[in-house]
Design a protein that fits this description.
The chain is of the alpha/beta class. It is built from 11 helices and 8 strands.
Length: about 270
């Protein structure tokens, strides 16, 4: 199989690294294009054998599986540009949540899927969220699932939970990074610890925390209980968090879903033209 990536921004690059470093495919079987072509050529520093294509159409002409890794409102203009070059045995995969597989399938003559990655896939970990079109062949579906297993835990999801699942899996690392940075900043402002020391301690804590989860020693719930001694220091901190968090995460999910619905409306406007 030859793999194509159209769009080498953050998530496009994550997928390229994941595909190659996990052994899904060889660099010589990967064909990439980016609107700013120099950004695609930058990847040849890591993978000299990767193929940089001058146009999206060239990627389509060379590949069996084509990932569309552009912004949501750029997907359908791109899809309509490459549509005449697609054959029914090829597969186009979107990585963006506001566009359903059904919408993609209605626009294209080929097989379709949606695979939403996470930046954690760069370390050959984390989850990928999968949805498949009705026309996809069973052997290709299984091939994609097995390929994702090499760098992630693939989870097949229903459209109804696409946004919240993506919030947890794909946006989650950014949300947690923001919260941990806020904790570090407060530590520096409230105590004599310096920023670099606090950052180093926090990063090592995160690595250790992840390994505890990976090895199955604790769940989120029982880890909190194991660390929290009644009447102790951790308990005092948890009491503050319980009071201060309030409905913060409710409002966060409301905001991400509102953006999701706004993007869907704009995409529907595009499709009606």
């Amino acid at each position: 199989m030859k793999w194509g990536i159209i769009g080498t921004g953050n998530m496009g690059k994550v997928l390229i690294h994941a595909f190659i470093n996990s052994g899904v495919t060889d660099p010589g079987h990967v064909y990439i294009h980016n609107r700013t072509l120099s950004k695609a050529f930058d990847l040849k520093t890591d993978y000299p054998d990767i193929n940089v294509c001058p146009t999206p159409e060239k990627v389509v002409s060379m590949c069996d599986i084509i990932f569309i890794c552009v912004k949501p409102l750029d997907v359908f203009p791109l899809v309509r540009k490459i549509r005449p070059k697609l054959k029914k045995e090829q597969c186009v995969i979107s990585i963006t949540s506001p566009i359903s597989v059904r919408q993609l399938e209605e626009e294209l003559p080929c097989q379709t899927a949606r695979i939403i990655p996470s930046i954690t896939n760069r370390g050959l970990n984390g989850v990928t969220l999968l949805s498949f079109g009705d026309r996809i062949e069973q052997n290709l579906k299984e091939y994609l699932i097995q390929s994702c297993k090499l760098f992630s835990r693939p989870v097949i999801i229903d459209d109804s939970i696409t946004r919240v699942a993506s919030d947890i899996v794909s946006c989650g690392p950014a949300f947690l990074s923001f919260l941990i940075q806020a904790m570090i900043q407060a530590a520096c402002e409230e105590t004599d610890i310096d920023y670099d020391s606090a950052m180093e301690l926090a990063q090592e804590m995160i690595v250790g925390y992840g390994k505890l989860m990976e090895k199955g020693y604790y769940t989120l719930e029982n880890l909190e209980k194991k660390v929290t001694v009644k009447g102790g220091v951790t308990g005092a901190g948890i009491e503050v968090l319980e009071k201060e968090v309030g409905d913060m995460f409710h409002r966060m999910f409301q905001a991400t879903h509102q953006k999701y619905y706004d993007d869907q409306d704009k995409i529907l406007d595009q499709l009606s033209i």
